[in-house]
Structures
1.
Amino acid sequence: MKRSNHQSQDGSAASSVNISGVSSAKRRPPNRPIDVVRFPHWSVYFDGASEIYSDDHELAPAINAFTTYFFTIIDKYATEKKPIKPSLRVIAISYADLQSQCQLQDLSERLKLDPESVLASLGLAFSNALIEKFGDVVKRLKRHVRILGHDQITPLKDLKSNLMGRFITIRGTIVRVSSIKPIVTRISFSCTSCSATQVILQIDGKYKTPTSCPGDGCRGRTFVPERSGLSDTKTVDWQRIRVQEKLPEDQKDSGRIPRTVECELTEDLVDLIVPGDV
């Protein structure tokens, strides 16, 4: 089971992928470098002023390398007569396979230290591959890439504050699951003075309101959330689980109480496990 938290962006990874030209709807062979420098779905994955796209963005080489990798995945599924559809929103990939096929020198370290940007880059790359394969039928929505087989297990006793924002793997038994609830991730607010709208990200579900109006010359300071289905307000499914460590055989009869940790699941990860699962 994987658990990751938020962390600020760090330096870019070295890459042997060459970047030039602009994106093309024409399918490229998976063994050739991808020369995409414009990513149509960029704002879906990097939603914030700190991640404005530019042609020399530090993540561009990684996204292009991941796009090449997903071409091989799409071709593999097609060969096995399990074709990937353009509507697919979640895909699971092997950690070992990703490491061996991507041309990034420090992928393992980067995933560990900056999981948020790496996972977002993987999702964007998957969208890029679908766009180049299927064209305009690919809808503008967020896709998730789930990494399987990350074998660097972190014992529960080592879960300390120094691991905040890191990509880690824990192993244990599910002892409790909560009911599924909605959690808001972004809210569209409307200015009561000029009706201008703006979207505010709700980090970890904590309610946050705008501080100023984006309207020209408007000094409004009062905003109301838009709740209609046509607004940019977004909620996702949320669930909390409790994981209990598996004690070694030589400690099972020692009387020590197993450690537990609570984890939060969202979106496609909810409602997948029940108490007793490992």
Note: The radius of gyration is 21 Å.
2.
Amino acid sequence: MDLNAKEEKKKIIQKIFSLLSIVVSLLIIGTIVYSRLEGWGFVDSLYFSTTTLTTIGYGDITPSTEIGKLFTVLFALTGVAIMLYSLTILGTHYIHYLDTHKPAFEHRMKKAIKTINPLSKKEDGWFVLKDKKKE
């Protein structure tokens, strides 16, 4: 691996760590705010924050205070936008990773396929393993 590839890999890992840190921070902020504003416990606050950011929104827990509802509007709009951005960046890096490693993966698969004894169909319709030694 050359120096440029190592630097690029390091930058990607830093970016992924930053994005994950932002997402975790959002969950922590939401959990603390809902705990304070709505008087919910830790689990309910984390649960509501998570279902809001992931846009699942089961509706089994909802804010009852006006300030909690206003916070939810801001939290959902900014949080979902940040989540979508984060997923887009992660997806882009994952696709890039797959593209750069595809040739090596295909080479390993072709090599593995050559070592497999494929099935051969006999005249009576039965399948049997080919004997590589006779070929």
Note: The first strand starts at residue 119 and ends at 121.
